[in-house]
Design a protein that fits this description.
The beta subunit is responsible for the synthesis of L-tryptophan from indole and L-serine. The chain has 19 helices and 18 strands. The chain is α/β, with parallel strands linked by helices. The chain has three domains: 49 residues, no CATH class; 159 residues, Rossmann fold (3-Layer(aba) Sandwich), CATH 3.40.50; 234 residues, Rossmann fold (3-Layer(aba) Sandwich). β15 and β16 form a beta hairpin. α9 runs antiparallel to α10 and α12 packs across α13.
Length: 495
């Protein structure tokens, strides 16, 4: 098969044959290519020899270092004193604890992690020209697509380093929770590479709705339980109260933390919320900044979905750095489900990260750790709280928020699939719906804004949800204020 390699400034094609010794001669040695979709809809490969070239980032960015006001500390749930490193030792390896509390601006990515990243990174930045045409908008819509990873989402960006650090410190077993199954799949994938045992508690609603995510985890060697389960005391207590509980991420976290805390050879891995997790995801934004520079664009609006916050933070945090420096001034917008609106309807207060109250207290936007959201199809967005760092950034005024019901999200997802060809997961469908809203506003005002969207994963294992929508069976579930008030009444009261 013949390919054209574009390296010269004139972009004249040089024809190479696959298998020929010169197949890779158009790339600088040891430089990984990236894909960029140009306005001609032609996909090209470029290296650092070309002005469009980028490499996989070799450092993670820590937003805390640049914030004018540092985020509130985590608190020990027993003493209400700031958490000390030794408080976290039962759950995390030393290096991840160091990263969690670090004030360093950049942290080097280990070579072994970059090597695995090379399976899918850098990820594509794609202009959604066909969607623009459908919407008849003057806006230019770009999306950073993380669905090219082995697990089909952005989650391996942190699963790989978390497992690598655990393996380096001699840990044999890791446990976790998962909502939609994307995080559990990613951790199982990473464990298969580094030889660790993996055990996952999957929220019951998603466990039943998404059997192929469970099979994906099992294929990579993980053991998967529906949560709440009979395996843990936390799970058994919940099942006694409600044998038909659909579960929640807070419950699943309680189960995984219980197992990690009770077994010295086992550590806990979290797919969102914590500082080190969001920091690992900044490879998304760092790549995207360089990709947009290469095509001469600057985003006016940046949009991403939020559940725990890792995908949104991964794209937004490097851009917030640029915004604080005065290099650009985009509006940064987080979108959440109307049925679990922690940012738009929650309170900013200290609360537990899990239902059983086993985790440190974190100051975050929360609906209350007892809140169990309705089983909407965006399983990855069904968390009662929001990442403390994103909550803090929101309080500082660097971002705005929006909640959208799931029918509008699936309507947008269908428009996207039928123009761009990619079937989105229900989670990024929220970002798509918000982007469509903004693009239609641009049609009304005539503004040719640059819209940048986080497309954090594909929906290949979410087709039953699409089936339900296409057949008119998807119901818009909104939050119950009485339900939230009851849950908020149980958050720890602290002066």
């Amino acid at each position: 098969m013949a390919v054209s390699c574009f390296l010269s400034s004139s972009l004249k094609p040089r024809l190479l044959l696959k298998g020929d010794e010169q197949w890779r001669s158009c790339f600088a040695p040891n430089i990984r290519p990236f894909h960029l979709r140009l306005s001609s809809n032609t996909r090209v490969q470029a290296s650092t020899a070309d002005s469009r070239a980028i490499e996989i980032p070799n450092q993670w960015y820590n937003l805390i270092a640049d914030l004018p006001v540092k985020p509130p500390p985590y608190l020990n749930p027993k003493t209400f004193e700031p958490v000390k490193p030794e408080d976290l030792w039962p759950l995390f390896p030393d290096e991840l604890i160091r990263q969690e509390v670090s004030n360093e601006r950049f942290i080097d990515i280990p070579d072994e992690v970059i090597d695995v990243y090379g399976l899918w990174r850098p990820t594509p930045l794609i202009r959604a020209k066909r969607l623009e045409k459908l919407l008849d908008t003057p806006a230019r819509i770009y999306y950073k697509y993380e669905g090219v990873s082995p697990a089909g989402s952005h989650k391996p960006n942190t699963a790989v380093p978390q497992v690598w650090y655990n393996a380096k410190e001699g840990v044999k077993n890791v446990v976790t929770e998962t909502g939609a199954g994307q995080w559990g799949s990613s951790l199982a994938f990473a464990c298969s590479l580094f030889g660790l045992n993996c055990e996952v508690w999957q929220v019951r609603a998603s466990y039943d709705q998404k059997p192929y995510r469970k099979l994906m985890m099992q294929t990579w060697g993980a053991k998967v339980h529906p949560s709440p389960s009979t395996v843990t005391e936390a799970g058994r207590m919940l099942l006694e109260k409600d044998p038909s509980s659909p579960g929640s991420l807070g419950i699943a976290i309680s189960e995984a933390v219980e197992v990690a805390a009770g077994n010295p050879d086992t550590k806990y891995c979290l797919g969102s919320v914590l500082n080190h997790v969001l920091m690992h995801q900044t490879v998304i934004g760092e790549e995207c900044i360089k990709q947009m520079e290469a095509i001469g664009e600057t985003p006016d609006v940046i949009i991403g979905c939020t559940g725990g916050g890792s995908n949104f933070g991964g794209l937004a945090f490097p851009f917030i750095r640029e915004k604080m420096s005065g290099a650009m001034s985009p509006i940064i917008r987080a979108v959440e489900p109307a049925a679990c609106p922690s940012l738009t309807k929650g309170v900013f207060a200290y609360d537990y990260g899990d239902t059983a109250g086993m985790t440190p207290l974190m100051k975050m936007h929360t609906l209350g750790h007892d809140f169990i959201p309705d089983p909407i199809h965006a399983g990855g967005l069904r968390y009662h709280g929001m990442a403390p760092l994103i909550s803090h950034v929101h309080e500082l005024g660097y971002m705005e928020t929006l909640a959208i019901a799931q029918n509008e999200c699936f309507e947008g997802a269908l428009k996207f699939a039928r123009t761009e060809g990619l079937i989105p997961a229900p989670e990024p469908a929220h970002a798509i719906a918000a982007t469509i809203r903004e693009a239609l506003r641009c049609r009304e005002t005539g503004e040719s804004k640059v819209l940048l969207m986080a497309m954090c994963g594909h929906g290949h294992f979410d087709l039953p949800a699409y089936d339900k929508y296409l057949n008119g069976g998807l119901v818009d579930l909104s939050f119950s204020q009485d339900k939230i008030d009851l849950s908020l009444a149980n958050i720890p009261q602290r002066i």
